[in-house]
């Protein structure tokens, strides 16, 4: 399966670990690509002028409409750290006492962060859904394993600051939107991130002979997931009509074949 001439994929979170690899794999598959970014210069340099660049922020719905003309698919790879860090973009640099409070009082840390999971994976994704074209062919969302196991270890610990709650709210917004969607729930991400690499390096990225790809449904899988394989799953999903309105988990387990057979993997998914 190949892209068609009129495909234009908007990648959101394109300069992150999975997003960069998604862009690289889309280029490999001859898709036209537009990236949504807050830093146009960074994205232009990273992708060697091979993509269209739209400046916007999913946390600000007013910035999204200008990124949408002629978009046929959206792949959303946004996210932030599960626990308070500099990536949460606090209003001011916390001092030592404030860092202690941030770690021990989730409500306080979330209220002080512009880039918390709640703002990115819940409200931000909802904003993106609202701005998406009505005739969109697919909305692919990178979520997380553990969405349905938030009261079990280790997911309860991971969700201490609400990252799984936020991802779940994002999923619900997508499913309830009426848009054709694919939701991918990876395990703990490994391989990369490739945030300092250039496009040529991204196009050569491989898993180094790691384990095979396993898909599941019902949120029962546990384990690591290669960012490279997650990115491939995103791109392959928009090439396979059978993945429409599917939610599935992805981890790396077992022997790795010479070539990952996505046709076979997707054929095992149960229709919803």
Which topology does CATH recognise? Rossmann fold
**Helical proportion?**
25-40%
CATH architecture assignment name:
3-Layer(aba) Sandwich
Instruction: Tally the helices.
Output: 10
Question: For this structure, what is the CATH homologous superfamily?
Answer: NAD(P)-binding Rossmann-like Domain
Tell me what portion of residues adopts beta-strand conformation: 15-25%
The first-level CATH class name:
Alpha Beta
Which structural class matches the secondary elements?
A: alpha/beta
Rg over alpha carbons: 18 Å
Order of helices and strands: EHEHEEHHHEHHEEHEEHEH
Account of the 3D structure:
- This protein is an alpha/beta fold.
- It contains 10 helices and 10 strands.
- The strands form 2 sheets. Strands 3-2-1-4-5-6-10-8 form an 8-stranded mixed β-sheet, sandwiched between helices. The chain has a two-stranded parallel sheet with strand order 7-9.
- α1 (17-28) links the parallel β1 and β2 (32-37).
- α1 crosses α9 (227-239) and α5 runs parallel beside α7 (163-176).
- The longest helix is centred in the middle third of the chain and has 15 residues, at 117-131.
- The chain is globular, with a radius of gyration of 18 Å.
- 42% of the residues are buried.
- The mean pLDDT is 90.
């Amino acid at each position: 399966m190949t892209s068609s001439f009129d495909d234009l994929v908007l990648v959101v979170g394109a300069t992150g670990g999975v997003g960069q690899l998604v862009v690289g794999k889309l280029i490999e598959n001859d898709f036209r690509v537009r990236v949504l970014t807050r830093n146009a210069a960074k994205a232009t340099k990273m992708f060697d002028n091979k993509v269209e660049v739209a400046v916007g922020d999913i946390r600000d719905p007013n910035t999204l409409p200008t990124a949408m003309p002629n978009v046929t698919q959206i792949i959303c790879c946004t996210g932030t750290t599960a626990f308070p860090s500099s990536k949460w973009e606090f209003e001011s640099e916390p001092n030592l006492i404030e860092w202690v409070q941030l770690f021990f009082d989730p409500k306080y840390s979330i209220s002080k962060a512009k880039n918390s999971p709640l703002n990115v994976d819940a409200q931000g994704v909802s904003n993106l859904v609202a701005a998406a074209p009505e005739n969109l062919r697919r909305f692919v969302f990178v979520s997380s394993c553990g969405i349905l196991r938030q009261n079990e270890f280790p997911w309860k610990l991971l969700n201490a600051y609400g990252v799984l709650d936020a991802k779940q709210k994002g999923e619900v917004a997508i499913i309830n939107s009426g848009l054709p969607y694919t939701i991918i729930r990876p395990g703990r991400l490994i391989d990369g991130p490739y945030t300092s690499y250039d496009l040529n390096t991204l196009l050569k990225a491989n898993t180094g002979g790691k384990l095979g790809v396993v898909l599941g449904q019902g949120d029962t899988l546990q384990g690591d997931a290669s960012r490279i394989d997650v990115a491939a799953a995103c791109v392959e999903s928009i090439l396979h009509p059978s993945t429409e309105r599917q939610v599935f988990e992805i981890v790396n387990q077992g022997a790795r074949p010479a070539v990952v057979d996505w046709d076979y993997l997707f054929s095992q998914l149960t229709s919803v």
